[in-house]
Amino acid sequence: MHDLLANLALGFSTALTLPNLGLAFIGCLVGTLIGVLPGIGPIATITMLLPITFNFDPVGALIMLAGIYYGAQYGGSTTAILVNIPGEVTAIVTTLDGHQMARQGRAGVALGIAAIGSFFAGCVSTLVIAALARPLVKLAQLFGPAEYFALMVMGLAFAVVLASGSVPKALAMILFGLLLSAVGTDLETGVERLTFGIPALTSGIDFAVLAMGVIGFSEVLKNLEAPEQRSAAKQPIGRLLPGREDLERSAGPILRGTLLGTVLGILPGNGAVLAPYASYTLEKKLAKDPRRFGKGAIEGVAGPESANNAGAQSSFIPLLTLGIPPNAVMALMVGAMTIHGIVPGPLVMTKNANLFWGMIASMWIGNLMLLVINLPLVGMWVKLLDVPYRLMYPAILVFSCIGIYSVNNSPSDVVLTGVFALIGYALLKLGFETAPLLLGFVLGRLMEENLRRALLISRGRLATFVERPVSAGLLVVALIVLVAAVLPAVRRGRAEVFTE
Amino acid sequence: MMKRLLMLATLCAFQAQAAYPERPITLIVPFAAGGPTDVVARIVGDNMSRTLGEQIVVENVTGAGGTTGTSRAAQATPDGYTIMMGHMGTHGAAPAVYPNLKYDPVKDFLPIGLAAGTPILIVARKNLPPKDLKEFITYAKANSEKLNEAQAGVGSVSFTTCSLLNSILGIKPTRVPYQGTGPALNDLVGGQVDYMCDQIVNLTPQIQAGSIKAYGIATEKRSPALPDVPTTKEGGLPEFQVSAWNALFAPKGTPGEVVTKLNGALGKALDDESTRKRLLDLGADLPDKAGRSPEALQKLVASEIERWGKVLKGQGAGK
Amino acid sequence: MSERAEVPENHAAGRSAIQASQNLIAGLALIAIAAIALGASADLGEGRFYAVGPGLLPRAVATLIGLIGLALTAGSLIRKGDALGRWGLRGPLFLFLSVAAFALSIRTVGLALAGPVAVLVSGAASPETRPKELIVFALVVTALSICLFRYLLHLPIPILIIPNVLVL
């Protein structure tokens, strides 16, 4: 405990210097900006700003880059709530209820609770990193391929709960997502799968491309068709910030979301992406009246937003303690550290103590800055809703196209997004939901990879999944969740299930 | 009239080349930002920018083991404003690994010069029974079916180098693929897989912390970054000598003067104290003066294509 | 399963055999997806348990999708459901053209031209567009994007390319 305080003191003294404060602020500001802009994300931005950081000292450089990453989580929810287009892929779940709240004139409340929930999650996970980094990483090490597979299966079971409409259609969407995730080059054998000879598909479909197309652009198409529905969003904006009742309702989800995000963010293989989905499903299951979800339930915003911020921060843990990046952004951080002469690894905590603790302290400061930046902006964002749609949608389109292009400097990605826009439009018209599709996509890759890897290592013995305790446990939970989700639907009578 | 126009045009072209570079140069890195090749490219590019007086902007174009970015570079306008950082995979092993490769490493590129190479190490999970390379050789030959080797995907450095190792040892372990070195390393540390061959840059911190153990480094001399790791020569496996070299290439048709200028700037970068230090700290090995010429690189590319062609026959994509 | 001759223009329920035309098309779409996927993965090996091949997941998933599609199609003939709504043509067409135009022009002529082109083409997607207003807006948005993405965020997006003359 004494050690912890001493370390935190070192951290704050490092983080509170004027240059580092300034860099943190710039990072958070830029992060918020790119979070808001659809398509473009932390990876492209950090890559581009890396050269600028050459002249800074390592701690400062990393503080700024880190700020961009978790700042983007704050910004991503803004567009998700206001225009139903996620600015970041982690904000997809926020569109479900967040935008509905905006339609009910509660945009301010939604934006506010997203910021507050994210702040709380940021503070807590910073503390967790500081105190529990080592043990948490040991926990993550327990996870081998079999356990990951079981975790993914559990995630799929959650996906069924996620859907608010017809269960068979949701299942079909999850499966479609799984299918789309298989497009590309097979990891193990190197053969191309489902690419139809199109070179653009050889490396698979980028998640941002799929998300922007199926959710973002198809949303634009939906609005173009139904001008009457749009004006409903122009209800008098009541409160600009969450009221007492809102805060009370959100307290539980925020806590649980933070916990989920912290745990999932540590798992390599981008576990942090799952966090908002997991939180949403958990809240929906726990709520007294689950049917409110999908129609503007504040818990559906508070939980996932906390989860994604907690996940973003805790994904620093494997990087700072083991030197092994759990996702692509952290891999960039490895590069940034390496270029600055700091080789990330288990010894960073001791050899570069001021870096480790400085970053942790700066994360807390960063979260505070983000709260201060975002809350007042709520009023400004809400005014944006007044822009006539005939001007708003071309702007959204151009920004999104640029954003998608910038991810891989690839025009074919942009065209692919257009194709997915048409597919997404068709799906909407046919009564399918898109959230399960995206979740299936994310899980698909991870699930198949780990299934095949686990079977490779166990030499084909399926029993490996039940012999290993953690894996068996997760599979059991998955089964329970699945049964619990499907049973009431079956009991309620097929008529309701098939009608939507 | 035509003659005068022609003279004018030639003069202009001449001027343009003499003034090279006049605007920023794009350096395509066919791998993800933050990885070893990217880091080398950025460190070297940073210094070259100062020599040339124009910014060298790194553009990461990932995919298909580096071949997507390489194809893009091969098709770029050969005016000297697009170059690329290729490596042992993209310009050595790719023809053997990818049957439908969309570029020819020899015909579509002009070599500029070698940048830095990263030695390869044989590493294993810390609880694997063999204590050193000699014991590992015996253990591997005896337990070939039980062994799990981690690799970062078909076409990656870990894949190609371990293909060489396995063929030298004559073993056929189960090859477990991962999406990149990060996850592979993670499972090695966690003890889920048994061994791996990879670049020193990724492995040094783990070895120093003791979370994995290194059996040998595949170079002539021990690395200053890891003085306790014996060379494969010392350990009884002298045939396993491989380094993941990184080099600058320009698309075919780039003017000779431009290539010379770039080669000069590269050489200056490799001589610069601080750049050298950054690269050496990573464990990279730098080419000596003789190895820096475009001709030396051309020879290397040809010999690498031949070498990997033999080793990887039947082990590449589609198999 | 008779009476398919009489398909009224308004709602399907009660009159024709198709009780839920939305589900019918949805089901057929799923079957189509499954068929395409199965066809495309026909040459992929399924492997064995200890070396699962690349074909296993796509084929298994495609089969399941097909089954759900069948169930939905069958269900649409039995149970009441939503009718297929009207599908717009203008919106999707011009949105796609706008995106495609952007993709074609971004690397060939640069953002300074791709931006306005995309905005103007997308304007055709909505009947509410006012042409003069849109032109001005296109230029403003493009200028803003250039400042934002190129100069602030340092992204390597080509601004203006005139072949053999200029590259910004």
Largest sheet of chain B: 9 strands, mixed
Name the biggest interface: A-C, 78 and 77 residues
What order do the SSEs of chain B take from the amino end to the carboxyl end, as H and E? Answer: HEHEHEHEHEHEHEHEHEHHH
**Sequence of strands across the biggest β-sheet of chain A:** 1-2
> How many beta strands in the DSSP annotation of chain A?
2
Q: Tally the helices of chain A.
A: 23
Mean of residue pLDDT of chain B? 86
Report the end-to-end length of chain A measured between terminal Cα atoms.
56 Å
Q: Please state the average pLDDT score of chain A.
A: 82
- Contiguous runs where pLDDT drops below 50 for at least 5 residues of chain B: none
First CA to last CA of chain B: what distance?
62 Å
Identify the quaternary structure here: heterotrimer
Structural class of chain A: mainly alpha
What's the number of extended β-strand segments of chain B?
A: 9
Rg of chain A, Å, rounded: 22 Å
State the shape of chain A. globular
How would you sum up the global shape of chain B? elongated
* Beta content of chain A: under 5%
Helix content of chain B: 40-55%
Helix content of chain A: over 70%
Structure, briefly:
The complex is a heterotrimer of chains A (500), B (319) and C (168). With 500 residues, chain A is an all-alpha fold.
Entry keywords:
heterotrimer; A: about 500 residues; mainly alpha; 23 helices; 2 strands; C: about 170 residues; two-stranded antiparallel ribbon; about 5% strand; flat
Describe it for me?
The complex is a heterotrimer of chains A (about 500), B (about 325) and C (about 170). Chain A has about 500 residues and is mainly α. Chain A contains 23 helices and 2 strands. In chain A, helix 2 crosses helix 17, helix 6 packs parallel to helix 11 (about 245-265) and helix 6 (about 105-140) packs antiparallel against helix 17 (about 355-385). By secondary structure, chain B is of the alpha/beta class. In chain B, helix 2 (about 35-50) packs across helix 10 (about 255-270) and helix 4 runs parallel beside helix 12 (about 295-310). In chain C, the strands form 2 sheets. In chain C, strands 1-2 form a two-stranded antiparallel ribbon. Chain C has a two-stranded antiparallel ribbon with strand order 3-4. Chain C starts with 20 loop residues before the first helix and ends with a strand. The interface between A and B is large, with 52 and 54 residues.
